[in-house]
From TrEMBL:
InterPro entries: ADH-like_C, ADH-like_N, ER, GroES-like_sf, NAD(P)-bd_dom_sf, Quinone_OxRdtase_PIG3
NCBIfam families named in the record: quinone_pig3 (TIGR02824)
Record-level Gene Ontology MF annotations: NADPH binding; oxidoreductase activity, acting on NAD(P)H
Keyword Oxidoreductase: yes
Species: Roseicyclus mahoneyensis
Record keyword NADP present: yes
UniProt-recorded name of the protein: Putative PIG3 family NAD(P)H quinone oxidoreductase
Spans traversing the lipid bilayer: none
Length: 326
Protein backbone atom coordinates (compact mmCIF):
# COMPACT_ATOMS: atom_id res chain seq x y z
CA UNK A 1 0.00 0.00 0.00
CA UNK A 2 1.03 3.55 -0.67
CA UNK A 3 1.64 5.89 2.26
CA UNK A 4 -0.94 8.33 0.86
CA UNK A 5 -4.49 8.09 -0.49
CA UNK A 6 -7.00 10.04 -2.55
CA UNK A 7 -9.80 11.65 -0.57
CA UNK A 8 -12.44 14.38 -0.61
CA UNK A 9 -12.15 17.04 2.06
CA UNK A 10 -14.35 19.89 3.26
CA UNK A 11 -12.26 22.98 2.52
CA UNK A 12 -14.57 25.32 4.49
CA UNK A 13 -18.21 25.31 5.62
CA UNK A 14 -20.53 25.86 2.68
CA UNK A 15 -22.36 24.31 -0.24
CA UNK A 16 -21.39 21.27 -2.32
CA UNK A 17 -18.68 23.26 -4.08
CA UNK A 18 -16.49 23.24 -0.94
CA UNK A 19 -15.86 19.49 -1.41
CA UNK A 20 -12.46 19.17 -3.08
CA UNK A 21 -10.09 16.30 -3.95
CA UNK A 22 -7.03 16.03 -1.73
CA UNK A 23 -4.24 13.64 -0.75
CA UNK A 24 -4.02 12.40 2.81
CA UNK A 25 -1.70 10.07 4.75
CA UNK A 26 -2.88 6.48 4.93
CA UNK A 27 -4.69 5.86 8.26
CA UNK A 28 -3.13 3.34 10.64
CA UNK A 29 -5.50 1.04 12.55
CA UNK A 30 -5.34 1.21 16.32
CA UNK A 31 -6.45 -1.34 18.87
CA UNK A 32 -9.66 -3.05 17.79
CA UNK A 33 -9.76 -1.20 14.46
CA UNK A 34 -9.71 -2.39 10.87
CA UNK A 35 -8.54 -0.50 7.80
CA UNK A 36 -10.88 -0.87 4.83
CA UNK A 37 -9.79 -0.41 1.23
CA UNK A 38 -12.95 1.40 0.17
CA UNK A 39 -14.69 0.25 -3.00
CA UNK A 40 -17.82 2.41 -2.63
CA UNK A 41 -18.93 4.91 0.03
CA UNK A 42 -22.44 6.01 0.92
CA UNK A 43 -23.62 9.63 0.77
CA UNK A 44 -25.99 10.72 3.55
CA UNK A 45 -27.69 13.81 4.98
CA UNK A 46 -25.27 13.97 7.93
CA UNK A 47 -22.43 14.37 5.40
CA UNK A 48 -24.15 17.45 4.01
CA UNK A 49 -24.70 18.81 7.51
CA UNK A 50 -21.00 18.32 8.30
CA UNK A 51 -20.07 20.03 5.04
CA UNK A 52 -22.28 22.99 5.99
CA UNK A 53 -20.53 23.28 9.36
CA UNK A 54 -23.40 22.09 11.58
CA UNK A 55 -22.40 18.50 12.41
CA UNK A 56 -18.86 18.23 13.75
CA UNK A 57 -17.09 14.85 13.85
CA UNK A 58 -16.83 13.24 17.31
CA UNK A 59 -13.44 13.37 19.06
CA UNK A 60 -10.87 11.15 17.39
CA UNK A 61 -12.83 10.70 14.16
CA UNK A 62 -11.56 11.68 10.72
CA UNK A 63 -12.53 15.16 9.55
CA UNK A 64 -13.28 13.70 6.12
CA UNK A 65 -16.98 13.11 5.41
CA UNK A 66 -18.45 9.65 4.92
CA UNK A 67 -20.25 7.47 7.48
CA UNK A 68 -20.51 4.16 5.62
CA UNK A 69 -18.50 2.19 3.10
CA UNK A 70 -17.94 -1.23 1.58
CA UNK A 71 -14.65 -2.77 0.57
CA UNK A 72 -11.97 -5.22 1.61
CA UNK A 73 -10.06 -5.34 4.89
CA UNK A 74 -6.57 -4.04 4.08
CA UNK A 75 -5.02 -4.17 7.57
CA UNK A 76 -6.00 -4.93 11.14
CA UNK A 77 -4.93 -3.33 14.38
CA UNK A 78 -3.95 -4.99 17.66
CA UNK A 79 -6.63 -7.10 19.36
CA UNK A 80 -8.70 -7.57 16.19
CA UNK A 81 -10.22 -11.05 16.21
CA UNK A 82 -13.28 -10.82 13.97
CA UNK A 83 -11.72 -10.01 10.59
CA UNK A 84 -8.75 -10.96 8.44
CA UNK A 85 -7.02 -9.12 5.62
CA UNK A 86 -8.97 -9.77 2.43
CA UNK A 87 -12.42 -10.08 4.03
CA UNK A 88 -15.21 -8.27 2.18
CA UNK A 89 -17.09 -6.00 4.58
CA UNK A 90 -19.54 -3.15 4.78
CA UNK A 91 -19.24 -0.88 7.77
CA UNK A 92 -20.51 2.02 9.78
CA UNK A 93 -17.76 4.64 10.03
CA UNK A 94 -17.17 7.49 12.49
CA UNK A 95 -16.07 9.53 9.44
CA UNK A 96 -13.58 9.29 6.61
CA UNK A 97 -15.57 7.31 4.04
CA UNK A 98 -14.83 9.68 1.16
CA UNK A 99 -11.34 8.23 0.73
CA UNK A 100 -9.48 5.22 -0.63
CA UNK A 101 -9.02 3.84 2.90
CA UNK A 102 -11.08 4.27 6.06
CA UNK A 103 -10.88 3.11 9.67
CA UNK A 104 -13.64 1.65 11.80
CA UNK A 105 -14.08 -0.46 14.91
CA UNK A 106 -14.07 -4.18 14.15
CA UNK A 107 -17.52 -4.57 15.73
CA UNK A 108 -19.08 -1.95 13.44
CA UNK A 109 -18.40 -3.99 10.30
CA UNK A 110 -20.62 -6.69 8.83
CA UNK A 111 -20.07 -9.17 6.01
CA UNK A 112 -21.23 -8.11 2.55
CA UNK A 113 -24.54 -9.99 2.16
CA UNK A 114 -24.59 -12.70 -0.49
CA UNK A 115 -25.81 -11.45 -3.85
CA UNK A 116 -25.13 -7.77 -3.23
CA UNK A 117 -22.63 -5.67 -5.15
CA UNK A 118 -20.14 -3.46 -3.35
CA UNK A 119 -22.17 -0.43 -4.43
CA UNK A 120 -25.28 -1.88 -2.78
CA UNK A 121 -23.35 -2.93 0.32
CA UNK A 122 -22.02 0.62 0.72
CA UNK A 123 -25.63 1.81 0.94
CA UNK A 124 -26.55 -0.38 3.92
CA UNK A 125 -25.02 0.59 7.21
CA UNK A 126 -25.88 4.22 7.98
CA UNK A 127 -29.55 3.75 7.14
CA UNK A 128 -29.99 0.23 8.51
CA UNK A 129 -28.26 1.05 11.81
CA UNK A 130 -30.45 4.18 12.09
CA UNK A 131 -33.73 2.49 11.20
CA UNK A 132 -33.20 -0.61 13.34
CA UNK A 133 -32.21 1.33 16.46
CA UNK A 134 -34.95 3.94 16.15
CA UNK A 135 -37.89 1.97 14.76
CA UNK A 136 -37.49 -1.40 16.43
CA UNK A 137 -35.43 -0.70 19.57
CA UNK A 138 -36.37 2.84 20.60
CA UNK A 139 -39.75 2.85 18.81
CA UNK A 140 -40.68 -0.75 19.74
CA UNK A 141 -42.60 -1.38 16.50
CA UNK A 142 -44.56 -4.64 16.54
CA UNK A 143 -46.34 -6.70 13.89
CA UNK A 144 -49.81 -5.37 13.15
CA UNK A 145 -49.09 -1.83 14.34
CA UNK A 146 -49.65 1.21 12.13
CA UNK A 147 -46.31 2.82 11.24
CA UNK A 148 -45.86 6.18 9.51
CA UNK A 149 -42.47 7.17 8.12
CA UNK A 150 -41.98 10.58 6.56
CA UNK A 151 -39.73 11.01 3.53
CA UNK A 152 -40.50 7.55 2.23
CA UNK A 153 -38.37 7.87 -0.91
CA UNK A 154 -35.19 8.79 1.00
CA UNK A 155 -32.55 6.29 2.00
CA UNK A 156 -34.01 6.14 5.52
CA UNK A 157 -37.54 5.95 4.18
CA UNK A 158 -36.99 3.15 1.67
CA UNK A 159 -35.17 1.15 4.35
CA UNK A 160 -37.84 1.75 7.00
CA UNK A 161 -40.67 0.79 4.65
CA UNK A 162 -39.05 -2.51 3.73
CA UNK A 163 -38.03 -3.49 7.26
CA UNK A 164 -41.36 -2.57 8.85
CA UNK A 165 -43.28 -4.40 6.12
CA UNK A 166 -41.06 -7.47 6.52
CA UNK A 167 -41.71 -7.43 10.27
CA UNK A 168 -45.48 -7.43 9.74
CA UNK A 169 -46.38 -3.79 10.44
CA UNK A 170 -48.90 -1.77 8.43
CA UNK A 171 -46.77 0.87 6.72
CA UNK A 172 -47.80 4.37 5.69
CA UNK A 173 -45.50 7.04 4.32
CA UNK A 174 -45.32 10.51 2.83
CA UNK A 175 -43.60 11.60 -0.36
CA UNK A 176 -43.69 14.59 -2.71
CA UNK A 177 -44.65 13.19 -6.11
CA UNK A 178 -46.72 10.47 -7.75
CA UNK A 179 -43.50 8.76 -8.88
CA UNK A 180 -42.11 8.68 -5.36
CA UNK A 181 -45.41 7.49 -3.90
CA UNK A 182 -45.55 4.63 -6.42
CA UNK A 183 -41.98 3.64 -5.53
CA UNK A 184 -42.86 3.56 -1.81
CA UNK A 185 -45.93 1.40 -2.37
CA UNK A 186 -43.88 -1.01 -4.50
CA UNK A 187 -41.59 -1.46 -1.48
CA UNK A 188 -44.44 -2.45 0.82
CA UNK A 189 -46.18 0.73 1.96
CA UNK A 190 -49.92 0.21 2.30
CA UNK A 191 -50.51 3.86 1.44
CA UNK A 192 -48.08 6.54 0.26
CA UNK A 193 -49.50 10.01 0.87
CA UNK A 194 -48.51 12.81 -1.51
CA UNK A 195 -48.02 15.60 1.02
CA UNK A 196 -48.55 18.20 -1.72
CA UNK A 197 -52.08 16.93 -2.32
CA UNK A 198 -53.35 15.43 0.96
CA UNK A 199 -53.08 15.93 4.72
CA UNK A 200 -51.22 12.96 6.18
CA UNK A 201 -52.89 13.56 9.54
CA UNK A 202 -56.36 13.10 8.08
CA UNK A 203 -55.34 9.93 6.24
CA UNK A 204 -53.75 8.39 9.34
CA UNK A 205 -56.64 9.47 11.59
CA UNK A 206 -59.06 7.60 9.33
CA UNK A 207 -56.99 4.45 9.98
CA UNK A 208 -57.12 4.91 13.76
CA UNK A 209 -53.93 6.93 14.19
CA UNK A 210 -50.29 5.88 14.01
CA UNK A 211 -48.81 3.65 16.70
CA UNK A 212 -45.34 4.86 15.67
CA UNK A 213 -44.07 7.76 13.58
CA UNK A 214 -40.49 8.13 12.37
CA UNK A 215 -39.79 11.74 11.42
CA UNK A 216 -36.82 13.67 10.09
CA UNK A 217 -38.68 16.87 9.16
CA UNK A 218 -39.42 18.47 12.53
CA UNK A 219 -40.62 22.09 12.54
CA UNK A 220 -44.29 22.33 11.59
CA UNK A 221 -44.53 18.53 11.43
CA UNK A 222 -44.06 18.14 15.21
CA UNK A 223 -47.58 19.21 16.31
CA UNK A 224 -49.09 17.48 13.29
CA UNK A 225 -47.30 14.26 14.20
CA UNK A 226 -48.51 14.43 17.80
CA UNK A 227 -52.08 14.88 16.58
CA UNK A 228 -51.69 11.93 14.16
CA UNK A 229 -50.61 9.50 16.87
CA UNK A 230 -53.00 6.96 18.32
CA UNK A 231 -53.38 6.79 22.11
CA UNK A 232 -50.15 5.40 23.61
CA UNK A 233 -48.39 6.19 20.32
CA UNK A 234 -44.68 6.93 19.94
CA UNK A 235 -42.92 9.63 17.93
CA UNK A 236 -39.23 9.10 17.16
CA UNK A 237 -37.31 12.12 15.82
CA UNK A 238 -34.06 11.55 13.93
CA UNK A 239 -33.50 14.90 12.17
CA UNK A 240 -34.93 18.41 11.83
CA UNK A 241 -34.95 19.49 8.18
CA UNK A 242 -37.48 22.23 9.10
CA UNK A 243 -35.74 23.06 12.38
CA UNK A 244 -35.95 21.83 16.00
CA UNK A 245 -38.04 24.62 17.56
CA UNK A 246 -41.83 24.81 17.53
CA UNK A 247 -44.72 25.56 19.88
CA UNK A 248 -46.30 22.33 21.08
CA UNK A 249 -49.22 21.62 23.41
CA UNK A 250 -47.92 18.93 25.75
CA UNK A 251 -51.34 18.38 27.30
CA UNK A 252 -52.00 15.96 24.45
CA UNK A 253 -48.90 14.01 25.41
CA UNK A 254 -50.18 13.54 28.96
CA UNK A 255 -53.83 12.95 28.16
CA UNK A 256 -53.14 10.34 25.48
CA UNK A 257 -50.02 8.83 27.09
CA UNK A 258 -47.77 9.61 24.13
CA UNK A 259 -44.02 9.12 23.95
CA UNK A 260 -41.72 11.59 22.15
CA UNK A 261 -38.12 10.50 21.80
CA UNK A 262 -35.28 10.51 19.32
CA UNK A 263 -31.61 9.88 18.73
CA UNK A 264 -28.64 10.53 16.52
CA UNK A 265 -26.27 7.73 15.60
CA UNK A 266 -22.79 9.19 15.20
CA UNK A 267 -22.11 10.33 18.81
CA UNK A 268 -23.14 7.00 20.35
CA UNK A 269 -20.48 4.83 21.98
CA UNK A 270 -18.59 2.05 20.21
CA UNK A 271 -20.36 -0.43 22.49
CA UNK A 272 -23.81 0.89 21.58
CA UNK A 273 -23.07 0.70 17.86
CA UNK A 274 -21.70 -2.83 18.30
CA UNK A 275 -25.03 -3.91 19.83
CA UNK A 276 -26.91 -2.52 16.83
CA UNK A 277 -24.53 -4.32 14.45
CA UNK A 278 -25.11 -7.60 16.28
CA UNK A 279 -28.89 -7.12 16.06
CA UNK A 280 -28.64 -6.47 12.32
CA UNK A 281 -26.53 -9.60 11.82
CA UNK A 282 -29.14 -11.67 13.61
CA UNK A 283 -32.43 -10.16 12.43
CA UNK A 284 -31.82 -8.27 9.18
CA UNK A 285 -28.83 -9.65 7.26
CA UNK A 286 -30.67 -13.00 6.72
CA UNK A 287 -33.57 -11.06 5.13
CA UNK A 288 -31.14 -9.32 2.77
CA UNK A 289 -29.39 -12.60 1.89
CA UNK A 290 -32.80 -14.14 1.16
CA UNK A 291 -33.67 -11.30 -1.21
CA UNK A 292 -36.58 -10.03 0.88
CA UNK A 293 -34.95 -6.64 1.44
CA UNK A 294 -32.46 -4.70 -0.67
CA UNK A 295 -31.13 -1.15 -0.66
CA UNK A 296 -32.86 1.09 -3.19
CA UNK A 297 -30.15 2.61 -5.35
CA UNK A 298 -30.50 6.04 -6.92
CA UNK A 299 -27.18 7.01 -8.54
CA UNK A 300 -23.45 6.25 -8.42
CA UNK A 301 -20.93 9.10 -8.69
CA UNK A 302 -17.16 8.99 -8.98
CA UNK A 303 -15.33 10.06 -5.81
CA UNK A 304 -14.13 13.22 -7.54
CA UNK A 305 -17.77 14.10 -8.29
CA UNK A 306 -18.75 14.22 -4.60
CA UNK A 307 -19.99 17.79 -5.01
CA UNK A 308 -22.46 16.66 -7.67
CA UNK A 309 -23.56 13.81 -5.41
CA UNK A 310 -24.29 16.28 -2.61
CA UNK A 311 -26.17 18.56 -4.99
CA UNK A 312 -28.42 15.65 -5.97
CA UNK A 313 -28.94 14.66 -2.34
CA UNK A 314 -29.98 18.18 -1.38
CA UNK A 315 -32.25 18.53 -4.43
CA UNK A 316 -34.44 15.76 -2.93
CA UNK A 317 -34.95 14.46 -6.47
CA UNK A 318 -33.38 11.11 -5.59
CA UNK A 319 -35.20 7.89 -4.72
CA UNK A 320 -33.08 5.73 -2.44
CA UNK A 321 -29.34 5.86 -1.86
CA UNK A 322 -26.52 7.78 -3.53
CA UNK A 323 -23.02 6.31 -3.41
CA UNK A 324 -19.50 7.23 -4.49
CA UNK A 325 -17.26 4.85 -6.47
CA UNK A 326 -13.59 4.86 -5.57
Amino acid sequence: MSETMRAIEITKPGGPEVLKPTTRPLPVPGSGQILIAVDHAGVNRPDALQRAGSYAPPPGASDLPGLEAAGVVAAVGPDVTRWNVGDAVCALLPGGGYAQYALTHQDHALPVPAGLSMAQAAALCETFFTVWSNVFVRGRLKAGERFLVHGGSSGIGTTAIQLAHAMGARVFTTAGSAEKCAACEALGAERAINYREADFGEVIAAEGGADLILDMVGGSYLPRNVKALADDGRLVQIAFLEGPKVELNFAQVMMRRLTITGSTLRPQSDAAKAVIAADLATHVWPLIAAGRIAPVMDQVFALEDAAAAHARLESSAHIGKIVLKL
